[in-house]
Task: inverse folding
């Protein structure tokens, strides 16, 4: 297979305008003849569904939640980037583009990233017009703060709840369309398969989570906006229900999966407290604006933080990266934390954290200012740990948080299956090997509001006069029957272990061997351990209840089945990529100072994997990355 | 610590439901309340008893998915805390904890502790938005918003839509939820053009599903985000004015 990213011609500044000018349009009176399925209603999905519904297309939106307002976009705390340069710091679209390509360690596609930076400003305009209550200065204009990997303040925020406010904006926009009847909304409806007819995405198989009924829906185009797969690690900052099933099922139907090993471990999460831990809680990266990260210089130091004098503390980020200090990008900050914890300098009862200390900022700015900036985060921290961060430093440690990898898409955000579009975290395109803070919200909304409404229209224009494939087509019936069988098998196994037990075991393998540091030996071990665990799951899992009512164990079992296969591909990709870049750190490839060592000669490409059947080796297709505007260099934050 | 749970079990919307008692032994005080339920569910599964269905997702107190009555209090004993943020250090060895779903006419039962809160979305669909087509917005800094107004709107916008306010209300009213959603938009300059249709349609839709507010104030005490009762005053005033204004506008049209 040859991958064609379909990047428009012309200078990078003109590509998107040229593209839109050359686009085939669908006239307003023809739009209602087209049906579009949107799976997932987080930022990208809700924005796409709302925008296309408002434009006149017949949209069907699906979410496994009870309401579209629950999507995990809601939990993003820190903010959203845009190149407004409202504060006269020399920011520009080009700088945001440049920072994002560099931050991604030169493993993203220039044209896509430029477009993302280009539409970033319109996102802020859109959100403010929708009533998103961004933070403001006394004069009433918008306030910004800085985030990791940038030397300008370009992050817009709404207290520590930016994701919530942006999601409510797109949720409300979607609700308006649902009320107006342009979007048909299906809640508690989980997509369990993609239906492909004659090589094109024709529809989906959905389970009604309240009745167990399997239904099929067809459309002219299918958009997946189903988020990332960090829960392959079991413990992550993702919500409990986040899963990779929609993307994985599409992969099994022919969509290539790109760079699955590119996962992000977020540096500032609350360390795990014991075995029963069900998920990890993130503390916004924005805290690194005012918090200083340190550990004791001595390994095994049992003293309370207040008893360790200033000269016996190691502010290791400030020491190693003086230019960016505590605001180094996430991958760099996470690895640096791992280094000190591995040296035995970890803090807290399990010695599995580092301090994030606000004493200096409170002394300089006063408690009130810190409270206004981070009050809700401090409260959340205290509720979870019982410690008061105004008095004693927070304890933090990295945790799986975001996946840069995802389904391969071209410039149109279309996967290798014609008619299947992928948006937001579910695709791979914009963040390379590492995502900068406050860029996920930007990408989700960019894809949903400003990219898909054009590119999907371009695809639909060629189908004028065609009806969607009817759902009594044999392919639909076959996919529905396979889904029913899969569920029935899970219920019939009646083994001796719970779904969570298997998920936890898989997570342990993944975090150990495919986490912050990866080695050939470890990855080979993971690849040897996962298949037997998967087989044991199919033999010995116990899922109680039936398929005719709400069955949360059954839902979870189906997701864990797909995590097994996805986890294997993540390890395979990590093993294949003989270099360190961004969040992918192979211990064999590092500089003498322990920084990531890329191999541009052999790996300046996207690794896109194809499903070749159960038990078969996946196929590999490469998309070479060409850098015309950003010069490849070793990322330095010193 | 060793605890006893009294949990509401109901196999589906048609079932009458009943309390069942389950032991929860060896619970650590650092666990969250929902992690305690996870453990009980794993043990039930191994004993061959179908696990307790409960709603939850982000476990960070922001998605609003979780929410149960704990000993008769929505989200349990901690003030300003969603169920997922409640931790077991709130309890001591030997305690019995009673766990029930939200009970309100507007929230029909689905299973065990899970109820259907989609009526909230119907209210938003009727007018809880500002209409703006993608790409048509003016520059974000064109309209300065006094910091205080933005903060006040944010206080209302912090609502997570969990439904605790309805569950706490003796009348099963949804005034605090609707007031929060309404006030967030109507306190901002961008929300003014649709203010009066919004007030009327959101309240009228609310009345289709929920009981009437009689100012008990239980909702404010139960709210995990400490949303203030003052917003209800704003909603009530605007609703009254909307009835007057919308009628006049309709008259002018004719």
Result:
């Amino acid at each position: 297979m040859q991958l064609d990213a379909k990047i428009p011609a012309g200078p990078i500044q003109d590509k998107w305008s040229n593209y839109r000018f050359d686009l085939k349009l669908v006239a307003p009176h023809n739009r209602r003849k087209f049906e579009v399925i949107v799976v997932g209603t987080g930022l990208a999905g809700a924005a796409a569904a709302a925008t296309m519904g408002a434009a006149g297309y017949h949209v069907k939106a699906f979410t496994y939640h009870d309401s579209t307002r629950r999507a995990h976009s809601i939990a993003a705390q820190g903010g959203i980037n845009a190149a407004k340069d409202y504060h006269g710091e020399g920011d520009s679209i080009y700088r945001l583009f440049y920072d994002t390509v560099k931050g991604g360690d030169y493993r993203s596609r220039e044209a896509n990233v430029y477009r993302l930076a280009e539409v970033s400003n319109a996102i802020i305009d859109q959100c403010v017009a929708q009533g998103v209550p961004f933070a403001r200065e006394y004069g009433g204009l918008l306030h910004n703060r800085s985030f990791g990997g940038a030397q300008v303040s370009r992050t817009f925020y709404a207290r520590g709840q930016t994701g919530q406010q942006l999601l409510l904006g797109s949720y409300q926009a979607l609700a308006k369309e649902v009320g107006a009847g342009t979007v048909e909304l299906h809640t508690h409806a989980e997509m369990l398969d993609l239906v492909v007819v004659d090589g094109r995405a024709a529809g989906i198989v959905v389970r009604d989570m309240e009745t167990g009924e399997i239904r099929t829906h067809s459309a002219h185009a299918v958009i997946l906006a189903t988020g990332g797969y960090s829960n392959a690690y079991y413990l992550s900052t993702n919500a409990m229900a986040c899963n990779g099933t929609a993307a994985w099922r599409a992969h099994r139907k022919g969509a290539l999966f790109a760079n699955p090993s590119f996962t992000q471990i977020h540096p500032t999460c609350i360390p795990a407290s014991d075995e029963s831990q069900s998920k990890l809680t993130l503390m916004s990266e924005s805290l690194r604006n005012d918090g200083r990260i340190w550990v004791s210089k001595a390994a095994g130091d049992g003293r309370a933080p207040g008893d360790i004098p200033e000269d016996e503390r190691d502010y290791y980020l400030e020491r190693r990266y003086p230019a960016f200090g505590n605001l180094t990008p996430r991958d760099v900050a996470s690895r640096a934390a791992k280094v000190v914890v591995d040296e035995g300098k970890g803090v807290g009862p399990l010695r599995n954290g580092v301090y994030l200390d606000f004493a200096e900022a409170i002394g300089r700015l006063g408690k009130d200012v810190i409270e206004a900036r981070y009050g809700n985060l401090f409260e959340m921290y205290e509720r979870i740990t019982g410690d008061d961060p105004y008095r004693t430093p927070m304890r933090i440690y990295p945790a799986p948080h975001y996946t840069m990898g995802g389904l391969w898409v071209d410039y149109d955000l279309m996967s290798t299956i014609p008619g299947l579009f992928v948006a937001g975290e579910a695709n791979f395109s914009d963040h390379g090997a590492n995502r900068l803070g406050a860029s996920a919200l930007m990408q989700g909304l960019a894809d949903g509001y400003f990219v898909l409404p054009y590119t999907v229209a371009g695809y639909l224009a060629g189908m004028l006069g065609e009806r969607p494939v009817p759902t009594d087509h044999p392919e639909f019936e076959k996919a529905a029957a396979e889904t029913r069988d899969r569920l029935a098998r899970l219920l019939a196994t009646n083994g001796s272990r719970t779904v969570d037990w298997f998920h936890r075991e898989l997570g342990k393998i993944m975090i150990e061997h495919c986490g912050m540091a990866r080695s050939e030996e470890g990855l080979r071990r993971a690849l040897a351990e996962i298949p037997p665990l998967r087989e044991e799951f199919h033999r010995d899992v116990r899922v109680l209840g039936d398929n005719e009512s709400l069955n949360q164990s059954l839902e979870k079992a189906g997701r864990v089945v797909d995590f097994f296969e996805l986890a294997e591909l993540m390890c395979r990709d990590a093993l294949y990529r003989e270099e360190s870049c961004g969040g992918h750190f192979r211990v064999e490839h590092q500089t003498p100072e322990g920084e990531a060592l890329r191999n541009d000669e052999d790996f300046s490409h996207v690794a896109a994997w194809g499903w070749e059947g159960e038990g078969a080796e996946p196929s590999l297709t490469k998309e070479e990355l060409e850098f015309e505007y950003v010069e490849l260099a070793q990322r330095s934050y010193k | 610590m060793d605890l006893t749970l009294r949990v509401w079990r109901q196999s589906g919307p048609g079932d009458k439901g009943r309390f069942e008692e389950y032991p929860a032994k060896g619970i650590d005080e650092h666990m969250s309340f929902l992690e305690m339920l996870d453990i009980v569910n794993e043990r039930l599964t191994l004993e061959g008893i179908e696990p307790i269905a409960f709603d939850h997702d982000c476990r960070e107190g922001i998605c609003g998915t979780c929410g149960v009555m704990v000993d008769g209090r929505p989200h349990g004993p901690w003030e300003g805390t969603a169920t997922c943020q409640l931790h077991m250090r709130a309890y001591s060895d030997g305690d019995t904890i009673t766990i029930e779903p939200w009970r309100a006419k507007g929230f029909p039962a689905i299973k065990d502790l899970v109820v259907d809160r989609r009526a909230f979305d119907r209210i938003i669909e009727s007018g809880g938005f500002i209409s703006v087509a993608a790409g048509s917005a003016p520059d974000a800094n064109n309209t300065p918003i006094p910091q205080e107004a933005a903060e006040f709107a944010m206080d209302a916008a912090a609502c997570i839509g969990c439904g605790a306010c309805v569950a706490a209300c003796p009348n099963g009213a949804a005034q605090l939820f609707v007031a929060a959603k309404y006030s967030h938009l109507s306190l901002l300059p961008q929300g003014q053009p649709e203010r009066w249709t919004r007030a009327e349609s959101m309240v009228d839709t609310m009345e289709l599903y929920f009981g009437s507010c009689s100012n008990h104030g239980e909702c404010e005490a139960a709210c995990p985000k400490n949303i203030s009762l003052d917003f209800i005053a704003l909603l009530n005033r605007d609703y009254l004015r909307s009835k007057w204004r919308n009628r006049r506008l309709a008259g002018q049209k004719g």
Notes: Chain A touches chain B through 81 residues (CB under 8 Å). The domain at 265-399 of chain A is CATH 3.90.700.10 (Flavocytochrome C3; Chain A, domain 1). Residues 552-576 of chain A form the longest helix (25 residues). The two ends of chain A are 41 Å apart (CA to CA).
